[in-house]
Amino acid sequence: GDQVEFELEVLHRSGLRWQAWRRFSDFVQLHDELTRDFSREDVATLPVPPRRSWLPSFTQTMEFHEQRQHELQAYFTAVVGQPEFVRHAAVQDLLGVQPPDQPAG
I want to staple 96 with a disulfide (CB 3.0 to 4.6 A). Which of 2, 20, 25, 36 is the partner? Predict the structure, then answer.
């Protein structure tokens, strides 16, 4: 079926830059994991993530997708603006960051 992916433009403090493409459900899962793993007070500092639409993606307009992209960007910018969230595995996964391999030994 049709699915919509949203682009994350990632700029690491080292100067590396890459793109990660994620579905809306990936952001929902991220928010669920942050809500589970952090206090209500910590999560309350984030903007409310966009609401799920029950319309099939083929009926959604370009304006809808652009607005959703803007809302997801605002949400994710707030997430990565807080160091305790950035270190969370779900955030790292959404960014496309791979954890280093364990040392052989």
Answer: 20
